[in-house]
Specification:
By secondary structure, this protein is α+β, with helices and mostly antiparallel strands. It has a single domain, classed as Aminopeptidase, CATH 3.40.630.30. It has four helices and seven strands; from the N terminus they run βααβββαβαββ.
Length: 155
């Protein structure tokens, strides 16, 4: 059974490792340096945990932390949220945890009318999950480097 709990500073070190490991294959593929979630610093993760405009949840399966999901409110007064990061332990990917986590987060944020996220072009499994959940490609691309282009999605 999957549970979700608010991330705390006590979870920082464990989740820093979980996130880095989950994103290492994409870092190797896209070579996106400091932009990559695999290179998040302890200070950056601490800032996310303490962000009063954000929600950072632990994804727990059978009492083990297997991932995290982080989103924050956009400061434009239009009830919009940006789904910044979701990571699942490599050995647990493909089990539906990402989809369940996104659904849970959206259900928690009842007043949010618009959700935004970015996904690497060519990451078809991720794109499939987002589209299955109702996210639509906006047509906007963000070029990070010669290997990585992000696609902007909206729901």
């Amino acid at each position: 059974m999957v549970k979700f709990e608010k991330m705390t500073i006590n979870d920082l070190k464990e989740h820093l490792v979980l996130q880095r490991r989950a994103f290492l294959p994409l870092l190797a593929k896209y070579q996106d340096g400091n932009f990559s979630p695999a290179n998040i610093t302890e200070a950056e993760m601490k800032k996310r945990i303490e962000n009063s405009q954000g929600i950072y949840l632990k994804i727990i399966l059978d009492s083990l932390d297997v991932g995290g999901i982080y989103a924050y409110t956009l400061n434009n007064g239009r009830n919009e949220m940006y789904l910044s990061t979701i990571y699942i332990s490599n050995n647990m990917q493909g089990c539906g945890l990402a989809q369940e986590s996104i659904k849970h987060l959206e259900e928690m944020c009842i007043g949010i009318k618009t959700w935004w996220l970015e996904v690497p072009e060519g990451e078809n499994k991720n794109i499939h999950i987002y589209e299955k959940l109702g996210y639509q490609y906006t047509g906007k691309k963000i070029i990070i480097n010669e290997k990585l282009t992000l696609l902007l999605y909206k729901k």
